[in-house]
Amino acid sequence: MTSRNSPALKGAKSLHLKKFLQQGRGVASFAPSSRKLSAAACRGIRPDRPQVIVELGAGLGPITTHATQRMHPESRIIAIERDPDLAAYARQAAPRALVISGDAADVAAILADQAIDRVDVIVNGLPTPSLPHEIKRRIFDWMATLPGPVMMSQLTVMPWVYLPMYRHLFERVDFDLVLANVPPGGIYHCHGLREGYAAWL
Question: How do residues 70-113 score in pLDDT, each as one tens digit?
């Protein structure tokens, strides 16, 4: 396990900051998710039963790593990261996950290539409110096709600001505040995508 002050962790933080400065709103935060934020993001991941987990915007893989440590041995996690450098790092950090370098807007095609037609948990690390409308629409249209109950855990570094938006999108939204993160953040745990979701994207 990498210690908090190891050269590898310092290098990871430098890489994340570099990508944040290069990509602006395409990267949700200037620092990787902390252990506590990662744990909160994995609330829906169950160690007692197999699940299919999809992570959008894996970054360096801190949440991916926590998810693989928490999930049932027969669970599958597919993590999608657009930036190939970040995807390569996440792949090393979480070897039990399938980390794909690709665009989250193509999630439906990516899962079809893996013969996956059922998802139990979505962990969304993308800065959803600031994404281009077409990308948001493609992601949420994919969510709308998923059978059965699906929980989406959405990261935020602006606690409560977008709570009204997610309550318009979903039937039920629970919020975990995580102050022990840089910057302070939280997780919206969203259940039941509403039929009229498209009007609020």
Answer: 999 999 999 999 999 999 999 999 999 999 999 999 999 999 99
Tell me the CA distances in angstroms from 158 to 30, 80, 104, 127, one per residue in order.
13, 23, 22, 10
Angle at 115 between CA 127 and CA 144, to 5 degrees: 45
| Widest pairwise Cα distance in the chain | 48
Tell me the DSSP string of 13-50.
HHHHHHHHHHHGGGSS-SSPPPHHHHHHHTTT--TTS-
CA-derived radius of gyration, the chain: 16
Read off the pLDDT of residues 191-200 as tens digits, 9 standing for 90 and up. Answer: 999 999 999 9
Average per-residue pLDDT for the chain: 89
**DSSP H/E element including 163:** helix 163-169
Query: 17 and 9 in contact (C-beta within 8 Å)?
Result: no
Q: What is the pTM of this model?
A: 0.86
Distances (CA, A) of 36 to 63, 95, 104, 176: 10, 21, 24, 11
Q: What angle do CA 21, 178, 85 make, to 5 degrees?
A: 30
